[in-house]
Prior knowledge:
Two copies of one chain form a homodimer.
Chain A: H1 24-54, H2 61-66, H3 75-78, H4 82-97, H5 102-107, H6 111-128, H7 130-145, H8 150-174, E1 178-179, H9 183-210, H10 221-233, E2 238-239
Antiparallel strand pairs in A: 1-2
Helix pairs in contact in A: 1-4, 1-7, 4-8, 6-8, 6-10, 7-8, 7-9, 8-9, 9-10
Chain B binds a DNA duplex through α1 and α3.
Amino acid sequence: MFLAKCHELDRSPTLAAMNPVAAPAERSFRNRQDKYDERRVQLAESALATLGELGYARTSLREIAQNSPFSHGVVHYYFKNKTALILHCVRYYKSRCMTRYDEIVDTALTADELRRGFADKLLETLRTEAPMHRLWYDLRNQAMFDPELREDVSAIDNGLCDMIDRVLTRYAELSDAVPRYDRNVAYSMLDGIFLAALLEHLIERDARTEAGETDDASATESSDRLRDKAFTLLPDLVAAP
Amino acid sequence: MFLAKCHELDRSPTLAAMNPVAAPAERSFRNRQDKYDERRVQLAESALATLGELGYARTSLREIAQNSPFSHGVVHYYFKNKTALILHCVRYYKSRCMTRYDEIVDTALTADELRRGFADKLLETLRTEAPMHRLWYDLRNQAMFDPELREDVSAIDNGLCDMIDRVLTRYAELSDAVPRYDRNVAYSMLDGIFLAALLEHLIERDARTEAGETDDASATESSDRLRDKAFTLLPDLVAAP
DNA sequence: CTCAAGTCTTGACGACTGTCAAGACTCTTC
DNA sequence: GAAGAGTCTTGACAGTCGTCAAGACTTGAG
Lengths: 241, 241
């Protein structure tokens, strides 16, 4: 047992592992460590898929394992316990979703282009990542009951607030205006609109698939409305300087 | 077994029961029926208290019974199963909270009075009914995963939207203005702000009690900020006609 | 009082959960 | 190829859950 196991925060690469021309023993170590990390990512992805489908409450370790190439016992080899796995998932998820609008922010040349790009992206993520979004809201809600989740949930929430703030600040710049509201207020308002659209979207979506419709089930009228709402609302979130 | 049991929607009073000078047998029937209804209310209240404390996921029937004067088996005498109890709770909860701002709407004489009254009431309900609010958000979120809850959740959500709409419509009237946003958009935005404040409030609150502070634990800085936010935001939600 | 209907408690059931230990398998190193 | 560390599977454990049936207690009618 010379490999760092799940029991500690073992994210720091060892000294030897930093060396590009390592001795065979050390390269092997690297390989093992890489494989180990890869497995954790693999498990996190299986867990996220399951969590997005069933929600935090009804997701069991056996269910997660069934959505992965492994058996249920393996989880405790890579993670101390269930909450450790879920927290790892949450952080992993965070690292992927925080930069969603950055490309648009960086490339848009006019306020209207940014506004349209943002609204389109909002629509797209609602349609293609609905399970992940409902999982996020589920976790954030669980944090109201379970203090163990609060630190990570707050971190993600702040990150999302920053993400929105970058959009609004840039939009204000391009509009020769200034943000009208406190960043947290603006974030909360947009988040509330997105949350409502998500709920409506999921209800519509399931109603369609239940009716046996063969259309692209991810396209709903509610998600279309979300784009319009965001598009219309954005100018109201800035004010003349 | 001549009394209507839990297995059906038995809310309709019988013909005989409508008679104010009923025969003894019928009065007895009324008494029994009343007691039966009272028990259901009693159980619903115990369940709501438990749900507000533990959340939807971690609330068991045994826990609910422990917060009531009864034992765990009695639940299945008054409700078909767990979901029936919870749905009953949800409807019961709905009937109590929908009129929260109506008195202010009806009595306020000026726009500013309404605005202040609304913001104060918002603050008050955040502080005194935090567990119920987080339960509501929990249930609404569960509806994203569990179709069984959607009908009731949608009904409540619409009711809350109406409630907010009454406030805004009246506020617009008193301001010689008109509502600026679609009612659903306005509701979603205010809801988002309230949700964020609730989460922040709970975190602050628990951090204080954990630190062993003896102050009135229901008062937090975040809840104060909520009042200011609502107070400031309200004028922006209406526009010149 | 007697009896029956209504009400509630108790204890059990099968299913499911997170956790963990024992062992089998795989791969690297000598 | 032998040895041993690393990886994964299997099966069991203690606990909890929703559900339900059997019976004890309570209440009111005759």
